[in-house]
Design goal:
By secondary structure, the chain is of the alpha+beta class. It folds into 3 domains: 167 residues, Sandwich (Chondroitinase Ac, Chain A, domain 3); 118 residues, Immunoglobulin-like (Sandwich), CATH 2.60.40.2660; 109 residues, Death Domain, Fas (Orthogonal Bundle), CATH 1.10.533. Helices cover 18% and strands 33% of the residues. It contains 9 helices and 27 strands. The radius of gyration is 23 Å and the shape is flat. It comes from Channa striata (Snakehead murrel). Keywords: Cytoplasm, Immunity, Inflammatory response, Innate immunity. One of its GO terms (biological process) is inflammatory response.
């Protein structure tokens, strides 16, 4: 997944207008979250005005304000939505895309399948996901699309952007290519994606990532599988997670360099079996992200060392992976209100307006919240304040109510529950009430 550039300053939320005093303008950073510009949390955040970069440097570039879009998942397909508060340059924290807008607008986007039959006759091949964009008004002037090119090969001149419309295929020449993005002017929104020249890109390494997903243990066989995915670095992580529904994502340093059409192997000393024995790395951008390797481990394995090696047994990636924190032990049970408290901040920051309304409906039915409480929360205009009011209201009611919120969050927003490290798991005995019974629920990892 594309990783936004590190930021030396603390983060600050500003409502619509982005400005700073003269002594702060080199450090201010605007953060927009969950589908709309949010001004509720200024008081909880500080601005760090110190900088180790020169104020007098005319070439100093500020990172664009970052936003977290509302994510919607349907049949493993993830789509993104965000309402921008006004003109400016904004970077998506999920996909790495950067948008330059001329006015306030709502933007929707998602990845779609490449039609390689359009690219092959003109000697092009996908170099990133193909994004389809929709906007309420014609307000997007530039798009910065993440690429997976290495710094050494940026000068080869093989990158451009394909634009696919009802009229067919055309190519947009980059205004600029940075270490991470291809910047293009867009005459109108459609489907756009980064492509390579096939000849210029032959046998060169690309910036890639190793993603790990732990499958649930099999108590009958006393085994557990660890999925290893080799993907280009500009593959959106949330879309991969959405397809690994029953698995736990293990966050590890993932970056490596891989070559298209080269074979790779995985070494893991404690593995019972690794399948396949070797696999070819392909630049697959689309909606299907299948495991490259499957490592079969003894159940309850605490730690493993995993190596990815090339055809000459050269090491391209290695990491000691701790599996003990990847899921709850079979015999442990945590108070649900404690789990809610531990994820409260992230829930307030990331729960979308649509998810909050779904949760309210589901919690009203069994009597977890009252009509009065629902009306009060619904009447709250600010999204973050609405999320804060909901989680605090339920959390103060104890374990049963908290369990109901966790269970329903896992049901209505699978991506967010994954990010909060919640998985379907029984929380343990509790009293039941209301019009429905809560079966399996979620437990923090």
């Amino acid at each position: 997944m594309f990783s936004p550039q590190p930021n030396r300053s603390r983060q600050m939320e500003v409502h619509g207008i982005f400005k700073a005093s003269p002594d702060q303008e080199r450090n201010i950073r605007v953060v927009l979250t969950n589908g709309v510009a949010d001004d509720s949390d200024y008081d909880d955040l500080d601005l760090d005005t110190e900088s180790d970069e020169s104020e007098d440097n005319p070439d100093l570039m500020l990172d664009p304000p970052r936003f977290t879009p509302e994510l919607q998942t349907e049949s493993d397909q993830v789509s993104y939505r965000f309402r921008f508060p006004g003109p400016g340059e904004f970077q998506c924290t999920v996909t790495g895309l950067v948008f330059v807008l001329t006015q306030e607008a709502e933007l929707q986007y998602e990845t779609v399948e490449w039609d390689k039959s359009l690219l092959q006759p003109v000697g092009k091949t996908p170099a990133g996901p193909l994004f389809h964009f929709k906007c309420t008004v014609d307000t997007v002037s530039q798009i910065h699309l993440p690429h997976c090119e290495t710094k050494d090969d940026l000068l080869s001149g093989g990158l451009c952007v394909a634009q696919i419309t009802d009229d067919g295929l055309s190519f947009l020449e980059p205004l600029e290519i940075t270490d991470t993005h291809v910047i293009v002017q867009v005459p109108h929104l459609s489907a756009c994606g980064v492509v390579w020249d096939v000849v210029k890109r032959f046998l060169k390494p690309v910036s890639s990532q190793v993603l790990l997903f732990l499958q649930p243990p099999n108590s009958k066989t006393q085994k557990q599988n660890l999925n290893v995915l080799l993907l280009p670095i500009n593959t959106p992580l949330d879309e991969v997670i959405a397809q690994q529904k029953d698995c736990t994502y293990i966050r590890v340093p993932s970056k490596c360099y891989l070559c298209k059409d080269q074979s790779y192997t995985v070494d893991c000393p404690v593995a019972l079996k690794i399948q396949p024995k070797k696999a070819t790395f392909d630049l697959m951008f689309g909606s299907n992200y299948h495991p490259t390797f499957e490592i079969c481990l003894p159940i309850n394995t605490a730690e493993v060392t995993i190596k990815v090696q090339d055809e000459s047994n050269g090491e391209v990636w290695e990491h000691e992976v701790n599996l003990t924190g990847s899921g709850p032990a079979e015999t442990l049970s945590f108070p649900a209100e404690q789990i809610l408290k531990s994820v409260r901040t992230q829930f307030v920051e990331r729960a979308s307006e649509a998810v909050l309304h779904k949760l309210l409906d589901k919690l009203l039915d069994p009597g977890v919240i009252t009509d009065g409480e629902m009306e009060k929360i619904t009447a709250t205009a600010n999204r973050a304040e609405k999320a804060r009011e909901l989680i605090d209201t339920v959390r103060k009611k104890g374990s049963e109510a908290s369990s109901a919120l966790i269970e329903n969050l896992c049901e209505v927003d699978h991506c967010l529950s994954k990010e909060l490290k919640l998985v379907t798991k029984q929380l343990g005995p509790r009293r039941r009430r209301g019009r429905r019974k809560h079966g399996d629920t979620c437990q923090i990892l």
